[in-house]
Amino acid sequence: MNKCIAYNHTCKKCGKLHHHENVCRLMSQRRWSTPPTNNTPPDDATTVFYALCSVGDATESTLNTISLEHHVYNDFCDTWEKRQSDPQPFIDVSIQVIPSDFKHLSLPTSISHPTSTISYRAMANMGCQSCLAGSKMIHELGLNKHHLTPVTMKMTAADNHGINIIGALVLRITGTSPSGATISTR
Question: What pLDDT, on a 0 to 100 scale, did the predictor assign at position 84?
Answer without folding.
Answer: 82
